[in-house]
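Hi V.,

You were right to ask for the full record rather than a summary. Here it is.
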Amino acid sequence: MPAKFGNFFSPKAPPQGGPVNADPAGSPPRKPAGFSKVFRWQTETPGPQPVSVALVGSFNGWQKTPLKFDRVNNNWQLTLHNIPGNCTHNYMLLVNGKPAHDKNSDGLAVPHTPEEKQFALATPRGPRVFMLFAQTK
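Predicted structure:
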């Protein structure tokens, strides 16, 4: 009986080869969850609506993803899910295939990759793409 108590009260060394606070079930570490973002665009001047509005960016491989026109709110919108978090993404809105200003962006960045340069918006300070600060809780 005393031997059992001796083992119970003796200090144990942490397991070798892994973190001390590992999940007891042995599951792999969790990846940061993605998040959802609603992109909206509205014409700034009265007149006819564009034929198409699309979104391209680092979060969708610079592939054109169309926005849908919402007649109730008179704007174009798209909700993207599972955008990787904890990083900054670059993107552009294309109206009738041409870069358009996004007043809801988190800022402007100098384009570096060929895709960014292809879709860049001309500004007085040179070509720019929009930034999205992707943070998850």
